[in-house]
Design goal:
The complex is a heterodimer of chains A (about 110) and B (about 110). By secondary structure, chain A is mainly beta. In chain A, about 5% of the residues lie in helices and about 50% in strands. In chain A, the strands form 2 sheets. In chain A, strands 2, 4, 5, 6, 9, 10 and 11 form a 7-stranded mixed beta sheet that branches. In chain A, strands 1-3-8-7 form a 4-stranded antiparallel beta sheet, with no helix packed on it. In chain A, β5 and β6 form a beta hairpin. Chain A starts with a strand and ends with a strand. Chain B contains no helices and 12 strands. In chain B, about 40% of the residues are buried. Classes of the chains: A mainly beta (about 110), B mainly beta (about 110). At the A-B interface, β4, β5, α1 and β10 of A face β5, β6, β10 and β11 of B.
């Protein structure tokens, strides 16, 4: 049973460019969340998607946007990249009671902005 | 708001030593508590969890007890191995909430 799959694993972008990251949730999971993990820090919540709608958003600017597709997969888009956007971006999926079952994380996409 | 505080690392231990990584939290309501582990170059893996006061989560020799009175969820292992070297994150989620709140992580290095 495949877990959470993210692509690409690494990419390098130039300041001001736009980037799209992709996530396929664990089979059977219907909720996808995105986190940003800066070097040496804990992950920070960006937003969560459920039923193709953004359900909750963290303290991130509008440059960060997302989408969820009918098959539950998701994309994270970041516009006008800044050097400070360099981080590991983690996708997490879940089904049902998140307090009870928690989240399953992917291995992440390492974004470097130069 | 919710917050998680972990002891700073790195923590360096010899193989077979006893491990404690401290975690305390502040939360509205009664959170569920988690420990995640991150091996070098990888994402997060759920290590263990506890959903109510006095619950003990355990997995792979690691244990943590949900202590409501001290708002703590300390991670322990009786005998660490080199393969346990990783970064450990304490996290919580509150009732009806949709996001995990993480601590800053504690790096563990186990040497022969």
């Amino acid at each position: 049973d495949a877990g959470v799959t993210q692509s690409p694993t690494h990419l390098i972008k130039t300041r001001g460019q736009q980037v799209t990251l992709r996530c396929s949730p664990k089979s059977g999971h219907d909720t996808v969340s995105w986190y940003q993990q800066a070097l040496g820090q804990g992950p920070q919540f960006i937003f969560q998607y459920y039923e193709e709608e953004e359900r909750q958003r963290g303290n991130f600017p509008d440059r960060f946007s997302g989408h969820q597709f009918p098959n539950y997969s998701s994309e994270l888009n970041v516009n006008a990249l800044l050097l400070g956007d360099s981080a590991l971006y983690l996708c997490a999926s879940s089904l049902g009671d998140r307090e009870l079952y928690g989240y399953t994380f992917g291995s992440g996409t390492r974004l470097t902005v130069v | 708001g919710n917050s998680v505080t972990q002891m700073e690392g790195p923590v360096t231990l010899s193989e077979e030593a006893f491990l404690t990584i401290n975690c305390t939290y502040t939360a509205t309501g009664y959170p569920s508590l988690f420990w995640y582990v991150q091996y070098p170059g990888e994402g997060l893996q759920l290590l263990l969890k506890a959903t109510k006061a006095d619950d003990k989560g355990s997995n792979k020799g690691f244990e943590a007890t949900y202590r409501k009175e001290t708002t703590s969820f300390h991670l322990e292992k009786g005998s660490v191995q080199v393969s346990d070297s990783a970064v450990y994150f304490c996290a919580l989620i509150t009732g009806g909430g949709n996001k995990l709140t993480f601590g800053t992580g504690t790096q563990l290095k186990v040497e022969l």
